[in-house]
Amino acid sequence: MTQASEAAEQSAAPIEPPSSPLSLAFSRRGRPTPFGAQTRKPPVMVVDAAREAFYSTHFPNSTAEQWTDWRWQIRNRLTSVAQISRVIALSPDELMALSAKGGRLPVAVTPYYLSLFAAQGPQSPLRRTMIPSMAEFTPSECEAADPLGEEDDSPVPGLVHRYPDRALFLATDFCSAYCRYCTRSRRVGKGPSRMPAAHVWEQALAYIARTPAIRDVIVSGGDPLTLSDRAIEHILSRLRAIPHVEVIRLGTKTPMVLPQRITPALVKILKRYHPLWMSVHCTHPDELTPESAQAFARLADAGIPLGSQTVLLSGVNDSPAAMVPLMRGLMKNRVRPYYLYQCDQVRGAGHFRAPLATGVEIIRSLRGHTSGYAVPQLVVDLPGGGGKAPVLPEYLAGVSGDDLVFVNYEGRTFLSRDPATAALMRGHAEA
Ligand SMILES: *Cc1c(COP(=O)(O)O)cnc(C)c1O
Predict the structure, then answer these.
(1) Looking at 182, 186, 261, 328, which residue is catalytic?
(2) Which of 96, 164, 219, 236 could form a disulfide with 273 if both were Cys (CB 3.0 to 4.6 A apart)?
(3) Where, in this chain's numbering, is [4Fe-4S] cluster bound (predicted)?
(4) Residue 98 lies in a domain
């Protein structure tokens, strides 16, 4: 973290850490055991035993109060070769990439998230998404800094208005952890602080207020949940005051990389602005921990409909072995899988881009084999601002007389009588 952002962070309104060191302890199973806490009830956050061991080893003298404090997690993000190599043995390739100056995207990982892959090798899924490799520096054909053409659909800075009835409000360029395949690497992590200049928000809010067609606002970034409670409440209350804004959505990776942020105080704020939806960026079943489960439970208990967005990543989650448990695990946490994206053609992320056909096969491995609620929609966000295009495996195989021919999830053939549609399809086939 730069000195400027460190300063900005410290000057932000502080969140009080949970009362005294004696007021809570953590059992091995991650269940909080309050003692001596008759008076004040601190925001109890679970700490998994594996995490406890990790923090004790790599952050000596730190306390459970600190581990469970999201500001401590942000302040102690690992950002440099020196910091990261103290915790994991870097491969020569990772070492070279981390040492290279002028990388496209800064490096930052919260202690919590690093602990999820610290014991795993350089090719392990979460490690590949966070620790740069030299492949990042070899852009391939068709890659662009702004592959979705968001800047062309941006009427004011920090706002993308592509679809008629919804707008994307990029409220901050800061994330607690930077994904190496970030579609907004052109802007994230560049500024000196989490808060953009006041006039940026004002312009975006004014645009939304004077555009009655916008009924759904997606607050994203960066990660908007890295903002302070006060800043989040400011944005939400301003949006809620606009009569035509029916729905507010938050786009975030916080429950996966910084679950400590989902405090009772934050949740209390969020639930004042219903209907409020949340889309959570999830990558791999290794992210599903007691900590993230607690974050999801708090959000779901507050009545916030939770959806997931996952990027299909080569060597990370591009197999049913990763994706099936991820989607089932999300559903168990009351998160409805929403989108599975093909990785955008963003500069330096070519090594993460899996073929669309792999995505189709993953959807096939889910559909029929597990709960329909656990099947996300596979989409390609079209280069140049075309928007999201859904892609489905084909189950309708053809026509036979007045019947439609279907092949089910097991590969068996079934007929369904539908003369009108059969005639239409024959017409298409002849045309
Ligand atoms: C994805 C996206 C949205 C929201 O799309 P939904 O399909 O409604 O989730 C809105 N604006 C932009 C620019 C987007 O990329």
Answers:
(1) 182
(2) 236
(3) 175, 179, 182
(4) no
User: Is the domain of 310 the same as that of 201?
Assistant: yes
169, 183 contact by CB (below 8 A): no
Is 395 marked active-site?
no
Q: Report the chain's mean pLDDT, rounded to a whole number.
A: 90
- Phi, psi for 339 (deg, rounded to 5): -120, 140
Mean pLDDT across 142-169: 94
Convert the pLDDT of each residue in 307-346 to its tens digit.
999 999 999 999 999 999 999 999 999 999 999 999 999 9
- The closest alpha carbon to 341, from 407, 268, 279, belongs to 279
Output the residue whose Cα is nearest ligand 1's atom 1.
388
Contact 165, 199 (CB under 8 A): no
Q: Is the CB of 168 under 6 A from ligand 1?
A: yes
CATH of residue 385's domain is 3.20.20.70
| Ligand 1 pocket residue status of 170, Cβ below 6 Å | no
**409/263 Cα distance (integer angstroms):** 42
Q: In what order do the strands lie in the sheet with 247-252?
A: 159-163, 166-170, 216-220, 247-252, 276-281, 306-312, 335-342, 377-382, 387-390
What is the distance in A from the centroid of ligand 1 to the CA of 55? 38
d(CA 376, CA 382): 18
Beta-strand relationship, 166-170 and 306-312: unpaired
Could you tell me if residue 137 is inside a domain? no
Judged against a pLDDT cut of 70, whether residue 13 lies above it is answered with no
In-domain check, residue 111: no
pTM reported for the whole predicted model: 0.89
Rounded (10°) angle between helices 198-209 and 229-240: 20
Q: Are residues 304 and 164 in the same domain?
A: yes
Q: Which domain range does residue 382 map to?
A: 151-390
Q: Name the burial class of residue 337, with classes exposed (0-12), middle (13-18) and buried (19+) by CB atoms within 10 angstroms of its CB.
A: buried
What percent of the residues of the chain are helix, what percent strand, and what percent coil, each to the nearest 5?
A: 40, 20, 45
Best mutation site among 162, 248, 278 for ligand 1 pocket (most ligand atoms within 8 Å of CB):
162
